[in-house]
Amino acid sequence: MQTWDHKLPIYQQLADQLAAQLLDGDPAEGQPLPSVRALASRYMINPLTVSRALQALGDEGLVETRRGLGIYVRPGARERLRSVERERFLNDEWPQLRARLRRLGITAEQLKWGDN
Fold first, then answer.
1. Is 115 domain-assigned?
2. Considering its fold, how many domains does the chain have in total?
3. Is residue 10 within 8 Å of residue 45, measured between CB atoms?
4. Checking CA distances to 5, which of 12, 15, 29, 53 falls within 20 to 30 Å?
5. Is residue 40 in some structural domain?
6. Is residue 114 part of a domain?
7. Domain containing residue 58: CATH number
8. Residue bearing the bigger pLDDT, 67 or 114
């Protein structure tokens, strides 16, 4: 069951979660997203909240509505999203993470970058 954080609106959290799935290639560019009704049922939230999340993704140019067909991932969405997320990570998250690593005395050699 999905747990929502009270710090952000649910629609934004859902949009962020759907964007993360898009970044992972699910669904692929040119493919449809699940319907509003299916997403509302899956996450047990109001369809209007789902619609607002999808609108946020549309406003970012990641998805498009095709009348009578549904909502589809736009070509280039994954790379556009990756670029925005990289920039956000490097400017916002990395400096904080780097400072925390320094405070904890963790060196680059101690970090494991592989899957093992």
1. no
2. 1
3. yes
4. 29
5. yes
6. no
7. 1.10.10.10
8. 67
Range of the domain at 48: 1-109
pLDDT value, residue 48: 98
pTM here is 0.84
Does residue 71 carry a pLDDT above 90?
Answer: yes
Q: How many CA atoms lie within 13 A of 83 on its CB side?
A: 7
pLDDT level of residue 114 (50, 70, 90 thresholds): confident
pLDDT band for position 2 (50/70/90)? confident
47, burial (CB in 10 Å: exposed 0-12, middle 13-18, buried 19+): middle
Q: What is the mean pLDDT of the chain?
A: 94
- Within a domain: residue 116? no
Strands 63-66 and 70-73: antiparallel
The residues pairing with 63 across neighbouring beta strands, listed in sequence order, are: 73
- The DSSP annotation for 78-92 comes to HHHHHHHHHHHIIII
Residue indicated by tokens 């449809």: 32
- Residue 50 CB contacts under 8 Å (≥ 6 apart), including other chains: 11, 14, 36, 39, 40, 43
